[in-house]
Here is the input.
Amino acid sequence: MFGHSMLLRISKYFLLTLFVLSVFLYLLKIESRLVEKQSNNCVPQRKYALYGRHAEEGILQHVEEVMDSLGYSNTSIDDDWSLLWCHDYPFKKLKSRMMKIKPNQMVNHFPGSGYITNKVNLATSGLPYVPTAFKLPNQKGEFKDYAFKNPEKLFVIKSNNHRGINIRKITDVDLEVEGTFVQEFIDEPLLIDGYKFDIGVYIVITSIDPLRAYLYDGDVLLRFCPEKYEPLDVNNTDKYVVHDNYRPVWEVASLAKHFKNSGFGMKASLDTYLKSQGKNPEEIWQQAYEAIRAILLSKEQALVTTTEAYPSKRSFFELMRFDFTLDRYFRMYIMEANMSPNLSSEHFPPNRLLYLQVIYSTLSLVGLGRRGHTDNTEMTWLQAPLETEAAMKDIVVFPEICGKCTSCNEQRCKLCLWCLDKNEELKETLFFAHREFMNRHFYRRIIPPPLSEAEAKSGYEAIEGLTEINQIMHEWIRGKCLLDKSWC
Here is the structure.
């Protein structure tokens, strides 16, 4: 009896164990399938790479900081990255890679962006808001004539390969040196607490054909000369040149009380100071916007031609900083355009927030600033936005006109639904422009320029001088403005 009873118990325990084991294996199988399904639906982690002589030495630390916060992982330039952030111009040493760039990859420079940032070409462009300059030795005759007619003027000599500038008498200028230029010196600068300063304005070019550009409106970079301007000593450049060891805004009392004590940004601190001097800051900023627009429009065709050699014109964007100086009559002058502007706060830690916000806003604007993944499909950043971001109802404009259109040859009709359905390239261009507007963060559009309500009703004044695709882009913005004032 005892043996038979034990046998029954063992059998029951065995069957129970077998049942539990079966249930466990079944649940394990389900979990495995779920993991496999999730794995199949997971998007590969987005990656970014850095390029430049000092890229690994902390000069791009804040770029890394923002990219990491957005869920990107750092990789090498030989890997399959989504973004290549280059501190150095990449289209020479990395040209073979750039010629093979994939549709889902972006680079933070446009081919040919040097046409904008070249010091000699900018200074001698003859554009508004650029101090008069002469290229040497080609224009030495014109320079002598100008100096003779303006004996009270001072000039600085600059080189495209050298950052320093020095005031010179005409008799001390070597007029035969290649790659140099002389430029009129703004000898009556606006001083704050006795210091001369410059204003760094950040812009991003998101497209060149058509041309679209945005200005960072969140703040500016203010840099002051280390020493007070007066009395002027031409042999002491610390009085009139902004060096790397510039005086920061928090060491200038009239602005520090707003920046440091009240927590405002540099732009708001400067605006407050200008208002205390009886000036309207918006009039000053408007000069900067007009200057930048003029420069970008003058170089657009050169960038278009250069970019045509690459697989996709949508693979590139450009973050620049334009440096301005302001004279005592509150006139703005553009001094320099910087490719790969400094984004390191190593020497001035309080600048960290400015750089982080510029970088994040830039990535957001170009479609790379999303945190993590929001769906189960692989995000190809250069694809036209999904319908969740924008649909045709968000793109079409001029409802009063489109019902009367009979031909897509008429410019406004090209923006109507039945014409856009025949032009995938234009449709995709408008989708990208719409996404930029929705993701602009601290950026404001400067090309196409902003519109007043009256201008929206009458049309852009200068549209006739633009290329056809730029005319269409301007008209589309006007149509969006008429439907929604926030687009103006």
Summary: The first helix runs from residue 2 to 41.
